[in-house]
Amino acid sequence: MMQIKEQITERHTLAVTVANEPGVLARIAGMFSARGYNIESLTVADISDQHRISRITIVTNGTPHVIEQIVAQLDRMVPVFSVTDLTLGAHFERELALIKLMIAPGAHDRALALAEDSHAQVIDTAAHSFIFEVTATSEKIDAFVAAAERLGRVEVARTGIVAIARDQ
Amino acid sequence: MMQIKEQITERHTLAVTVANEPGVLARIAGMFSARGYNIESLTVADISDQHRISRITIVTNGTPHVIEQIVAQLDRMVPVFSVTDLTLGAHFERELALIKLMIAPGAHDRALALAEDSHAQVIDTAAHSFIFEVTATSEKIDAFVAAAERLGRVEVARTGIVAIARDQ
Prior knowledge:
Two copies of one chain form a homodimer.
Chain A: H1 2-6, E1 10-19, H2 24-35, E2 41-48, E3 53-62, H3 64-75, E4 80-85, E5 91-103, H4 108-117, E6 121-125, E7 129-136, H5 138-149, E8 152-158, E9 162-165
Antiparallel strand pairs in A: 1-3, 1-4, 2-3, 5-7, 5-8, 5-9, 6-7
């Protein structure tokens, strides 16, 4: 029974702090690629100008054994200060999407109703298009994009997931 | 005069669509690293489950000549479908940050006032901490983080910039 459970693929969200130096992202992405680990989404941004530290949020998937390997591999990379598997504890995940909708004829009011229902902000309005800003869970953004696609052609720019632990 | 102007370093935001296949991110990050191009922020996320396409938003900087080289290099990589330098036209940039504030004694009400002034959402409240969600321009997020740091210790997880062109 344990054997079967170990084979189940799980989705994990990792927070990795690294020295902000040239080539760090290439090395981390290269490690995932070389070992065949999957990257579902990745965001990287400086968190401190003064200390030159970046925080990378990586969403990956694999069996529990693979996730352990990924964490261990990251942990032993030189520019990595810390690796936290946020999925092991209470945490919040959010994503930001900018969605341009080229409104199909007659769909204008339904597009505005969708935005209101989904707590999307309308950040630009043109004659035949809207640009929406949506901050939500990835599932809610998926649902918003699917609903928008029924109202016209869409262009989507998503950040991928960013996450933070609930406890200190 | 032209010579001088050409030396000015500019910040550019590139939207890159790529085939969602293993190793794409490693190759792109590796190209930047090998050639000494800077990555200020990078986000990557699937934009279509059906067509296996990812969109990467890269904020980089360099002289106009270097930016041209970066675009040309990206454009000739095999899994890259398109490269758009959004900085050349009207576009919107946004970023999402999750900010945990361990509230200093006596700073509770000021923290809530800061959140209201900055249109930050309070997504978690504990005895001595808040977690805020802020979607804004990077400059506004910088300002929010700086203000929060005066009210206690902060932990910041940012997505980096995501961007979309205004015109179709």
